[in-house]
Amino acid sequence: EPEVTQTPSHQVTQMGQEVILRCVPISNHLYFYWYRQILGQKVEFLVSFYNNEISEKSEIFDDQFSVERPDGSNFTLKIRSTKLEDSAMYFCASRGGGLARTYEQYFGPGTRLTVT
Amino acid sequence: GNSVTQMEGPVTLSEEAFLTINCTYTATGYPSLFWYVQYPGEGLQLLLKATKADDKGSNKGFEATYRKETTSFHLEKGSVQVSDSAVYFCALAKYTGGFKTIFGAGTRLFVKA
Prior knowledge:
The complex is a heterodimer.
Chain A: E1 5-7, E2 10-13, E3 19-24, E4 31-37, E5 43-50, E6 53-57, E7 65-68, E8 75-79, E9 88-95, E10 106-107, E11 111-115
Parallel strand pairs in A: 2-11
Antiparallel strand pairs in A: 1-3, 3-8, 4-5, 4-9, 5-6, 7-8, 9-10, 9-11
Chain B: E1 3-6, E2 11-14, E3 19-21, E4 23-26, E5 32-38, E6 45-50, E7 56-59, E8 62-65, E9 75-77, E10 86-93, E11 101-103, E12 107-112
């Protein structure tokens, strides 16, 4: 069964450093997402991406964040200058296209980001 | 705006007990509704879904019915097992420019042997 994969599973970085989190969505999917979950809290939407551009973003997704689909298979989230409060689990998700009303998204296993 | 409210946990049950986790939503139109499960140290797995009013989603003994009149999607299981111990998230998805999923706060379930 196809699945979303994410690398690395755990990233430790120092405050102020740049990090890139990587995701490989399901191959025929067209919509891509990033969410984050601060430890013990709810899962929060960050950004959605379709047709090589951001289609929606939350207030959390400020100028420190960017997303990119550098090739036909990867989808990345970059945080330019990490802060302590960026420590969280980051989930990538993808969704198929077409007229399906399910809106069902398939989630990756997550990357745990620890900022020290 | 669109939102999901679910009962606070933790919920502690003995094995074979009946489980209900309440979930209500606020949204215009007809969102799709989901339950996701997160086992300790793992990611989010889709447990079940429903896309229109009166649909019943079911999987692994869990069920939830999309109730438009009460804007609810309560999760139920007739007989829980220790292996069901996890965090359960109720969620909705609706087109708001990007088909994002909005999650409830999660309910932690502990099942004792």
